[in-house]
Design goal:
Alkaline Phosphatase, subunit A; single chain; 13 helices; four-stranded antiparallel sheet; alpha/beta; globular; 484 residues
Length: 484
């Protein structure tokens, strides 16, 4: 970090305003986060005509729906690390997926604290639980060392009488589609599977039976998630605390499809974001841009807890709130696969910067390469069944810059970066992204050390016992030596 930025960052770090063990205060709302995995806004309330989602639609009708909410990272652990701190993962060194799992640990910068700790200090009971039976405890997936006692338990049932709670419930969400047994059980509970044949697809996916079936499975994961949301709301009603509880329904990032998860296109970054409860305007739709991390500031403010001065999240519910002019996202290493991408999105334009343009879009990645969507897409490509748009992901290299006019090209398939007619927009967004990286101390500007990479990869190879991962690691190192 440059000396001046170091000084500015240090001056922004607040002294804690909370006394440990502060007593509960009557009348404060409960705050409940429902966090679904791998899920884009494929809900009726977001205008998707192919799926019925009455429970999330009800939350939206009784509360506020944010039409343009975006995650800061299209992969689980970076986005969750950002959300739980209200900070960009790139600012706190948590930008590499599943990093800090080896001998070399990651510590949060001084003054950065987890949201549940702030609630604890204000007298709240904190919990994190998994709704899926296989989840004995709630997912954290944070890329840094933390005290697990920031959570008092797995469920708000453990709180003292009258004590308000801050609770997270982790929903299996889009991962239902990746687990054949869970998908079959979900379809049995729903009474049907979504018909695949006539489903509309984004233009960058071919209409092959395998791709259509995978898309149908995605929608069935949405349907069962919607049912789970309804069951949780029913519990709040049964316990007589629905009126005192603010419910936020969000996902960690977009759908885990070929051009979604791990990429900075809207399919990977656009998320559902619905709020309902005391302090939330009812029946309102908002089209302004917000970041997923804003959930942290909004939650603290609703509970009457001061928002730390260094927190990058913003309270989008404040009376003096100034809407964001742009939102930012970052993609770095995912498991064993090294990458470095940044983006800035305004209401109309998206700018993507590929810092490793000599690498293909579809770098080897053991996790993603075995997904049915990738297998089906590669089969279609091998058979010559892809058009020019559908072949974009198969390019052997990438442009250093991508620019999309979202008004005329919502699917982000016509790169305008080399178009002289859009030179002004390109310069403006390039500058905006560079300024954001500087002001937020984007730690991705410094490559990950080989020792930390090796530290994490030793855990990956040992845990997975997978020679494919070892092969990919060797390729990553070879490409680095070659300057790719």
């Amino acid at each position: 970090m440059k000396p001046l930025l170091s000084l500015v960052f240090a001056l922004l770090l607040p002294v804690s305003v909370f006394a440990a063990g502060a007593p509960p205060q009557a009348g404060r709302p409960n705050i409940l986060w429902l966090i679904a995995e791998d899920m884009s806004p494929h809900f009726g309330c977001y205008g998707d005509p192919t799926v019925r989602t009455p429970e999330v639609d009800r939350l939206a009708a009784e509360g506020t729906l944010f039409e343009r909410a975006f995650t800061t990272g299209p992969i689980c652990s970076p986005s969750r690390s950002a959300l739980i701190t209200g900070m960009f993962q790139t600012s706190i060194g948590a930008h590499h997926h599943r990093s800090g799992i080896g001998k070399e640990k990651i510590q949060l910068p001084p003054g950065v604290e987890l949201v549940p700790r702030l609630f604890q200090r204000a007298g709240y009971y904190t919990s994190n639980g998994g709704y899926h039976p296989a989840q004995k405890k709630g997912k954290t997936d944070y890329n840094f060392e933390y005290d697990p006692l920031v959570y008092d338990g797995p469920d708000w049932a453990g709180r003292k009488p009258g004590q308000p709670f801050f609770a997270e419930i982790q929903l299996l969400g889009g991962k239902t589609r990746d687990l054949p047994a869970e998908l079959a059980k979900a379809r049995q509970q729903l009474g049907s599977a979504t018909p695949a044949e006539k489903l509309p697809l984004p233009p960058y996916y071919p209409r092959t039976p395998a791709i259509l079936e995978d898309w149908a499975a995605t929608l069935d994961a949405v349907r069962i998630t919607d049912r789970h949301v309804g069951e949780i709301v029913a519990r709040l009603e049964k316990e007589g605390i629905l009126a005192q509880t603010v419910i936020f329904f969000v996902s960690d990032h977009g759908v885990s499809h070929a051009r979604g998860k791990q990429f900075l296109y809207d399919e990977g970054t656009h998320i559902p974001f619905v709020a309902r409860g005391p302090g939330i305007p009812a029946g309102k739709r908002r089209a302004d841009l917000i970041q997923q991390i804003d959930l942290a500031a909004m939650s603290l403010a609703l509970a009457g807890i001061p928002i730390p001065g260094n927190m990058q999240a913003r309270n989008a519910l404040a009376s003096d709130y100034r809407p964001r002019e742009a939102v930012f996202a970052a993609r770095d290493r995912a498991d064993e696969t090294v990458d470095h991408i940044r983006s800035v999105r305004t209401e109309r334009f998206k700018y993507v910067r590929n810092f490793l343009p000599l690498r293909p879009y579809l770098q080897p990645n053991a996790y993603k390469d075995h997904k049915p969507c990738l297998i089906a897409l590669r089969a279609a490509e091998a058979a010559g069944g892809l058009d020019a748009v559908q072949r974009l992901l198969f390019a052997p290299t990438r442009p250093a810059e991508e620019l999309y006019d979202l008004a005329s090209d919502p699917w982000e398939v016509r790169n305008l970066a080399a178009d002289p007619a859009h030179a002004a927009e390109l310069r403006q967004l390039r500058s905006r992204l560079e300024n954001w990286m500087e002001l937020t101390n984007d730690q991705g500007r410094t490559p990950e050390s080989e020792s930390r990479y090796d530290s994490d990869m030793a855990v990956y190879v040992g845990r997975k016992g997978n020679p494919e991962i070892a092969k990919n690691i060797a390729l990553m190192k070879q490409w680095a030596r070659e300057g790719k």
